[in-house]
Design a protein that fits this description.
Number of strands: 7
CATH architecture: Alpha-Beta Barrel
Largest sheet: 7 strands, mixed
CATH class: Alpha Beta
Mean pLDDT: 95
Strand order of the largest sheet: 3-1-2-4-5-6-7
Distance between the termini: 42 Å
Radius of gyration: 16 Å
Low-confidence stretches: none
Length: 195
């Protein structure tokens, strides 16, 4: 007799249950300059270490570990800024791990990006949190959200995996125009989304 197939799901935190100050070691899993897969155009992508969602089928399981990789450094930040200064680079992407559980690193970097480039370079982030969850979260998460142009939100759900989706791994995830969403107080989907 076959056992029924059990669907494994990511963890679902309560509002403000997971705080960056309690979990982040400010480690970086990877930095990939000049890539074209982590958002629109040529991008510089920072992969932070540590994630508590534990999504089954996660494409970057190693980065779920808060101890993985190396500490964030001023030298790395300076290199990212130098790489972003290239005219052909459209912007910065924050991935992980979970950027919103590593706000110490991410806030320092995005603040500097805005200081150096204003809005000439866009900032994207992927997160297991939904936009609505982030709106109920701690000050540091809301602050990071306020710096973003685009958020790809929601847990990766293996049952909804679809490799044909634009910049997403599963159909539940959304590509959100953060600036419009914050100004209109509702989720506004990115206007360049391919149907």
């Amino acid at each position: 007799m076959n056992k029924p197939h059990r669907v494994l799901l990511p963890k679902n935190p309560q509002p403000q249950e997971w705080l960056a100050q309690d979990h982040s070691l400010q480690y970086i899993a990877d930095y990939k300059p000049f890539n074209m897969v982590d958002g629109e155009g040529v991008r510089c992508s920072l992969y932070v270490s540590g994630c508590l969602f534990n999504c089954p089928g996660c494409y970057n399981r190693a980065a779920q570990n808060f101890h993985y990789g190396r500490p964030y450094s001023q030298e790395l930040e300076d290199q990212i800024i130098k790489d972003l200064s290239q005219s052909y680079v459209q912007g910065l992407t924050l991935l992980g791990g979970e950027p919103f559980l590593n706000t110490q690193v991410c806030l320092q970097l995005v603040h500097r990006v805005r200081q150096e480039f204003g809005h000439a370079k866009d900032i994207w982030s992927w997160s297991g949190y939904t936009f609505e969850e982030l709106m109920q979260e701690s000050y540091d998460k809301l602050k990071l959200l306020s710096y973003l142009d685009i958020l790809v939100d929601g847990r990766f759900l293996e049952a909804q995996k679809d490799l044909t989706l634009q910049f997403r791994g599963s159909a539940n995830q959304r590509i959100i125009d953060v600036r419009k969403s914050l100004s209109q107080n509702k989720v506004v989907i990115w206007d360049k989304l391919l149907k």
